[in-house]
Automatic annotation (TrEMBL):
<dbReference type="InterPro" id="IPR029058">
    <property type="entry name" value="AB_hydrolase_fold"/>
</dbReference>
<dbReference type="Pfam" id="PF07819">
    <property type="entry name" value="PGAP1"/>
</dbReference>
<dbReference type="InterPro" id="IPR012908">
    <property type="entry name" value="PGAP1-ab_dom-like"/>
</dbReference>
<protein>
    <recommendedName>
        <fullName>GPI inositol-deacylase PGAP1-like alpha/beta domain-containing protein</fullName>
    </recommendedName>
</protein>
<feature type="domain" description="GPI inositol-deacylase PGAP1-like alpha/beta">
    <location>
        <begin position="304"/>
        <end position="390"/>
    </location>
</feature>
Amino acid sequence: MGDPEFQVSGGAGGTGARYEDIGVLAAHSDDLARDLAGASVQGHGVLVDPDLLASAVLNPDGFAKIEAGLLSALDGPDGLSALSLGFGERAIALRTVVASYQAVDEAQARAIDTLRWAAGYGLGGALQTGVLAPGLALPLVAPIGVAGAVFGDDVDWEQLLTEHPGIVDNLVGLGPGLISSLPGTPMVADVPGAADLLGQLYEDGTHQTVERGVDDSHDSMRFPPRDFADLIDGLDWRNREANAGQPDQIDVRVITNPDGSRAYVVDIPGTKEWNHPFQGDSPYLHDTGTNIHVLGGDTTTRQHAIADALRMAGATTDDPVMLVGHSQGGMVAAQAAHDTSTGAFPYNVTHVVTAGSPIGAVDVPPNVQVLSLENGHDLVPHLDARDNPDQANRTTVTFDSQLGSVGANHNTREAYLPAAQALDRSSDPSVQAYRDSAGAFLGGESVESKVYELNRIH
């Protein structure tokens, strides 16, 4: 099987980066306009210099030529004043272009969200009254209806959804409107708001972090990572092989670089406990409740436990930290990166790598570089009904790996590790820029991998 095809958005080669470049060009134009205006003011001062005016008596012709030359250089069509005005106008035009494009992008996103919300609200009303509001929910759920009508009982729903995961975006996007339509429930505007409301059904509790020693049982734990494949291989080992179920365990790979400095890679597995809110409180932090809380933008107990593990591993607030997460693990990683700006995660997170994680709604600080791997046939990245933003610090790599089932398409070993191996051969500028920026984590001399068990206590 050949390498999967990649679609790369965002990052150093993305539209957001080009917008930033235009912004820098506008700032330089402003600076140049000010410098030229200052030089023009000084030049006009020369025109009325007393010594120059006095020379007019002795050499009228020479004085006139000097004055004419200065006036032309200062106020002529190509003079300093005109150039200053031109660069100032260019700065305004550049900023206007960027603002216009960004406004259009934001308006389109809001329009899609509004349509989905209205469809959900209409669907909720239909469920309560028995009358479907025409034209609302139908366009968004039509693919499911058409498939059912055409194939009847023979439709392969798993195949349908994995081939067309955008259906999941629409179904999830219906949720806020649907919830808002129910009697006695508050109005919720978006998916994070709906998740925040549902999160009230799950008690997040407090955390307990227990060190379980050093793991040297796998190459990814014994040798420092060199590339994307090594990073995902380590995540896969912790996520699937070393601890496929309970308890919740992470590892902190403590990397010592040739200059003696240290960097920390934290591997955060995905959900393993699929509990409903009426089962009672789960002792495990990688559960459904954490999914809902982090989707709502909450600082979760699992995040606090990871911070505790970093402290126990010896990380200081200055040491560079990379958070690598699968599914829920990537969601927690992105939220922790966001929380570095609020102080709720007191570590120097410089890099995040996610595999199959819905993090489009998370506002990541511009100083944190994010690489998101998304299988185009994986449903999980669609659970926030939001595309990842195209920003200079956020690179999203989408690849096609249809393995025939929801589970396989989301699997770290079957879907995401081969993609990471192929990505190491990519020459895409955004991918290369991310790789170059991650030198503190990919050029280590040695590594010690410490394992931590994360528990919830009530």
